[in-house]
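hey m, so remember when u said the tokens were messed up on ur end? i reran from scratch. heres the input so u can diff it against urs
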Amino acid sequence: MSEQGVRLSDRYRLESKVAAGGMAVVWRATDEVLERVVAAKILHPHLAMDETFRERFRVEALSAAALTHPNIVSVYDTGDHEDTPFIVMEYLGGGTLAQVLGKGVMDPAQTARIGAEICSALEYAHSHGVIHRDIKPANILFSESGHLKVTDFGIAKAAFAGADMTTTGAVLGTIRYLAPEQVEGEEPDGRADLYSLGVILYEAVSARQPFVGDTDLAVAMARINSTPPRPRDIRAEVPRELDRVIMRALAPQRDQRYPDASSMGRDLEAMTESSHGEVDHGPPTEAIEVPQSFVRSEGRLIGTILLLLIVAGGLVFGFIQLRESGMLARLIPGNAGETETESGLEIEFTAGIYDPPPGDGTENNRDTSLVHDGDRSTTWYSDCYSRTNMGGLKDGLGIFIELDEPVALQELEVVSDADGWSAGIRYSNDGEEWTRADSSETVSQREFTFRLDGEAHRYYQIWITKLVRIEERCSGSEQGDWTVGISEIIPR
């Protein structure tokens, strides 16, 4: 029945086949009543013969039709034609993310933007009780103008319910993006969708899957008990912040991932905001083109060039001033190969937040760059709480620094805007498993130095367990007026 010219429900005329998968065929069609182009997804005949499957397909289609969001493909109608179910949806003619990824690596900023928009769609769907279950590049569509939308919400539930992963083609076709709990047959929640998105983002910045194997099933089993290499280990140009988001999304245990799409989306969105300077793209690389909505306009490009010229001029002026003041000689590397500054070794790092469950993973994440901007008048603050112990909501919260490689630091100086808060030091080499330092928890002063163990670590975390009252900071907050502020973290 799926032939050109066929009319579904005497209304939707099939024109050309645009896609086919393990569950259905998608046609470009014309709605002859409203005179508009639509997409018609028609179930494969062998699946249409299963009455139970047909009913699940109908129920989930109706559930998806209730979702109205700028980044979700709209479902217009459902029906049956010659005992075969179909769904009529919004038509987008700009291709899929799978086609984009097939061309090579993506620019990190564009990757973060796409990820943030997918998170926006997931946040809305999850809040309405709909888990996608089949997030993959082929289900990320673009309009002809480049607008991103996610399709097939809820439809996968019909295909996955009671499916045998080893024999069902509809499942095997997308298994490379499934979360470990889906592979093991557990009931997924929204965090499974975030894992699948993590796989997509990993593929976008590295041009490879996080796990490889001879078969799809081997790839699926590998993710249950192993962790993939970090994207930055594959491509050094991947920003640390994006690398961290991807690896958190790919945590094998769901409680180690982002708690929801909103928190993951905020971290991705922060990378797209140049005002915070948090995305360091490294050396220029040849990146693929994505739909036009993700490409900078000429006006922004000219503005960027002017800004670079201004910065370059400032650097030249600063160099001259350093040379004339005699300071330049103090910044030239000595025989030991170390760059000395007034505070000791000059060590490049980025900062991030560690807020594990029951925390929501966010503590003013966008401001973490303020702890290493060299300006003691700028400060990162935690959220505001009702009591000094985070209102009893959790054991603590962490702010950490990430180095390019493990370094044996001797001490960590912390500059704060208030004293009386408590914290200790934790170490890690992967940003996921943390070890508490031998030193006991310390009541910090405005300027306090933590003595370290002298062993090499890549991550150093300040684990905060006691807040201080800063009424002027939390004025107007319904949560309370207990917080902590850190102006600078200086490693030596």
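this time it looks ok to me. The two ends are 72 Å apart (CA to CA). if urs says something different then somethings off w ur setup not the seq
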